[in-house]
Amino acid sequence: MAATKANGSADAPIEVSSAPAVIGINFGNSYASIAVLNKEENADCIANEDGERQIACAIAFHGEEMYIGNQAKHQLVKNSQNTIIGFRNLLGKKFSEIPADKPTNSAPVIQHPDLPDTAAYKVQVLQPAPTPLPTSKVTSAAATPSASNVATPRSEPTPTTRILTVSEVTTIFLKSLVQSAEDFLGRKVHGVVITIPTWFGDEQKKALEEAAKDAGVAVLQLLEEAGAAVVATTSAPRSDKDTLGEDRTQLVVDLGASGLELSLLSVRQGLAYSLATLSDHTVGGDAIDDRLIKFFAKEFTKKTKTPLTVAPATEPQDKRAEAKLRLAVEHTKRTLSASTGAATCSVESLKDGLDFTGAINRLRFDMEMRPIYDHVYKQVQVLASSAGLDLYDIDEVVYVGGSASLPGLDEALAAGLSEDVVTPFTAGTVVGGGVGDPTTLLARGAVLQAKLLATLGEGSAEEREVKAAFAPGHALQSVKATTRTLGLLFPEEGAENALGGQWVPVVLRETALPARRAVRLDVEVGEGARVGFEVWEAKEGVKITKEAPPKLEGDEDEEDEEEEEIETKEKTLEKEAFLAALTLEAHKARKVDGRLRTTLEVQFLVNEAGGLAITAVEADGGEKVTLAIAPAS
Amino acid sequence: MSHVVELPVVAPPTPAGWTPPATTGQSIAPVVERKLIPAGPAYLAHVKRAVHQLSFEEHDK
Ligand SMILES: Nc1ncnc2c1ncn2[C@@H]1O[C@H](COP(=O)(O)OP(=O)(O)OP(=O)(O)O)[C@@H](O)[C@H]1O
Ligand SMILES: [Mg+2]
User: Fold this and answer.
1) Where do the record's region annotations for Disordered lie (chain A) (predicted)?
2) Which of A5, A185, A359, A573 could tie A51 with a disulfide, CB 3.0–4.6 Å?
3) Ligand 1 centroid to A362 CA: how many Å?
4) What is the distance between the alpha carbons of residues A410 and A395, in angstroms, rounded to a whole number?
5) Domain end among A454, A472, A501
6) A578 and B37 in contact by Cβ < 8 A?
7) Which residues 433-472 of A have a C-beta within 8 angstroms of B?
């Protein structure tokens, strides 16, 4: 097998952790990836023996060979009937539940000949003949004068039909991933966390768990993709440069091959839940490919005067050319993501024996993809409003999935988000396999979760209970959460804002309970050495003002009547409910720039029922006051 | 306290004319049901506190 070094190489092995070997697998419908723990116990995405970090979820049979991964995908050109793809999405589904309408350019899904209502694939393989040779041949050979002592040739392998269920295919595939990890680690893998899409139901989970078991690996958890994203993004060490608070609203944009998955998450000191999700199968890498291969097919025709119609193609020759182009643009897209220069697309003998080499730069590419980016943007708007939020409420964007590596997508989204929003592109963590790399993020999150689960004991009843809380639907996953932001208002003489003072948010809305938050800040001390503040619930909003664009002088162009209004957004804050007021006597004030100042520490503790306990202390042993507010009865 | 967030804020001096408004007995707004994602150290801490019935302070130790 010739190794394709398209996306990395296994040449520079990392030093791996010595703890019990656990791995994380991102199991997409199109691509999978594997992550392990390095010596520092951090997550690293590894390449398989073919040098692939993004391993195509494909299995192909050719003669006596079985190919797995990107090599199998290449069989789609000439050996499509024996190439199996798209099996992840069929896991746990009955044959009768699978829509039959789609024509495939790969091994078709059939009803298993023996098992009732079971989806399977039928492939042609060559069954190797058993060695040593059958005796009949030996008998005939013995009758012939012996001419040489060359080993008797193996008899011809026999062509046979092989039926594989979706589960069997999954097992073969997972086994090869685990094997790659074991080869890399040099020891047996003890447990794995596998990521699953949000739409996976109980049947899908059960089928995946069984397939993994058959592959000989213990599943520590099937983890929702959004969960893997949270783990990966919240466990990166925080630096002083971090502008993101530990309490934030996170948008996860997963643009894979066949679809878009959006999640809006409340992330509060690493504790996360979903506010809204949305999935859309009209955009994704496949749709990007459609546009890109059309673009190149047009170029081919222009250059060679040979007609070529793709996406969709009808003529067999065009279909073959389309398959080749689809494989080739993988490289083009990755180049476009990785660098700002032009990217090429080369196909040998694309059609009628004519080779093709084309190029596209990022500007042009983004122009071609604009409808897709815009569509994603619209869906993000739909998602936010379904959660009752505005795009400006989003603090962080996390990109997941191969197609989310495209910088043009981030540019298109960022245009509608708050200026303060943090994305891996603005933070510079995408390139070079950084922590924000969308193609490795899920596998890395999965292995970090595997590490956490591997530390859990099972000795006592309580330990077992803790462990059980990671199973789907466990009662401890149900929580109460706040609906309004709680904070401090320091009244101010002649304050200019509508609030009448300085606002300090403490517990944000959508914080899971029980919650504890504490802040430390300086307060100026006025006459009487009294420090006082109010506790309020606030209502956050976004004010949108629309204005007609300024008329340019001398602009007498009457034709563009429908000039778009300019929209400006501004975050707003209103006092909603007064809860309490606290005062302290400042004993520890110090002089800073000629003015008295002291340091205050205020803690809010909100219990499950919604009761609030406030503690305020003047730092360094000053006065301490407490106050409790009962929950609504 | 390791969980304390340092804010780069200097609050204004309390105006001499400010009198703390009387507490009205108002509670925080009604809470809602949510489903936590069972992942990460924060979820583990949440579960441990619940299972061992620990307060935040007890769990800190
Ligand atoms: N660096 C890159 N730049 C642009 N596109 C990429 C890059 N890497 C991979 N892709 C594309 O991303 C898609 C695969 O994404 P991903 O691995 O997230 O899919 P998946 O989750 O397995 O698939 P699906 O969305 O069908 O479930 C493919 O279309 C691939 O061509
Ligand atoms: Mg995916």
Assistant:
1) 132-158, 547-569
2) A5
3) 18
4) 14
5) A454
6) no
7) 445, 448-449, 452, 456, 462, 465-466, 469-471
Domains of chain A: total: 4
CA–chain centroid gap for A472, Å, is 20
CA distance A193 to chain B (A): 11
Within-domain flag for A426: yes
Which pLDDT band, with edges at 50, 70 and 90, does A554 fall under?
low
Candidates B15, B38, B56; nearest CB to A491:
B15
CB contact under 8 A, A534 and B20: yes
**Closest by alpha carbon to A35, among A57, A17, A50?**
A17
pLDDT at A559: 54
Q: Report how many helices (DSSP H) and strands (DSSP E) chain A contains, helices first.
A: 12, 28
SS3 label, residue A446: helix
B31, B33, B22, B61: which is closest to B45 by C-alpha?
Answer: B61
Q: How far is the CA of A4 from the centre of ligand 1 (A)?
A: 17
Domain end (from A312, A332, A366)? A366
Do A157 and A73 fall within a single domain? yes
Closest CA to A486 of A532, A517, A449: A517
CB contact under 8 A, B51 and A469: yes
Supply the mean pLDDT for chain A: 91
Distance of alpha carbon A422 from the chain centroid: 16
**Same domain assignment for residues A89 and A192:** yes
CB A483 to CB B38 under 8 A? no
Q: Is residue A161 part of a domain?
A: yes
Would the pLDDT of A9 be above 60?
A: no
Same domain? A348 vs A417: no
Cα gap A382→A278, rounded to integer Å: 9
**Above 70 in pLDDT, residue A137?**
no
**Angstroms from A53 CA to nearest CA on chain B:** 24
Distance CA(A92)–CA(A25), nearest Å, equals: 19
Is residue A263 in a domain?
yes
Confidence at A563, pLDDT banded by 50, 70, 90:
low
Are the C-beta atoms of residues A380 and A235 closer than 8 Å to each other? no
Query: Domain span at residue A501?
Result: 485-546+567-629
The values of phi and psi at residue A451, to 5°, are: -60, -45
pTM confidence score: 0.91
Contact A35, A45 (CB under 8 A): yes
Stretch A108-124: mean pLDDT, rounded?
96
| Mean pLDDT on A246-271 | 97
Q: Are residues A49 and A86 in the same domain?
A: yes
What's residue A403's pLDDT?
98
Assign residue A599 the CATH number of its domain.
Answer: 2.60.34.10
Same domain, A431 and A358: no
d(CA B14, nearest CA chain A) in Å: 6
Assess whether A254 and A198 both reside in one domain.
no
Burial class (CB in 10 A: 0-12, 13-18, 19+), B41: middle
Residues A167, A170: Cα–Cα separation, whole Å: 5
Instruction: Give percent of chain A above pLDDT 90.
Output: 79
| A273 lies in the same domain as A307 | no
Q: Is A425 left (phi over 0), alpha (psi -120 to 50) or beta?
A: alpha
Which of these ranges, A144-153, A325-334, A488-497, B32-41, has the smallest mean pLDDT?
A144-153
Q: Are residues A95 and A180 in the same domain?
A: yes
Please name every residue paired with B32 in a beta bridge, in sequence order, or none if there are none: A481
- Establish if A52 belongs to a structural domain: yes
Helix (H, G, I), strand (E, B) or coil at A87: coil
What is the distance of C-alpha A469 from the center of its chain?
23
Answer yes or no: is pLDDT of B39 > 80: yes
Q: Name A535's bridge partners.
A: A488, A580
